[in-house]
Amino acid sequence: MKFQYLEEDRIEFLKKVLWNYANLISSICVVDDESCERIRVCLESCDVDKDIQTFIKERATGPDIPEPPSYVNFYAGSGENGTRY
After folding, report:
1. How far apart are the C-alpha atoms of 61 and 67, rounded to whole Å?
2. How far is the C-alpha of 4 from the C-alpha of 12, rounded, in Å?
3. Fewer C-beta within 10 Å: the chain N or C terminus?
4. HSE, side-chain direction, 13 A CA sphere, residue 28
């Protein structure tokens, strides 16, 4: 009879632990779904053309094209001032 009580306690314990685990996973899924919904809302408000125009307006370099940098041949062994690269 003692083994039956032990087995009943074991089953009740597993039932309680698995119930708590299922509730925990369920609540995590709800939080994950809410986070994903916030991402989707942000993505819906994203306007590609507006973002590109804002980038151009804020980060444009202007109408002047800079001179290209001078070429340094690293295989030649030394630079213009005698330093070795």
Report:
1. 13
2. 12
3. N
4. 6
pLDDT by residue for the chain (85 residues), tens only, comes to 898 999 999 999 999 999 999 889 888 888 888 899 999 999 999 899 999 999 989 988 788 888 999 998 888 766 556 555 5
**Per-residue tokens: 49:** 């053309």
Predicted TM-score of the model (pTM): 0.45
Rg of the chain (C-alpha set): 33
d(CA 49, CA 39): 20
CB 72 within 8 A of CB 85: yes
Compute the half-sphere exposure of residue 3: CA atoms within 13 Å on the CB side of its CA.
0
| Residue 36 CA to its chain's centroid (Å) | 12
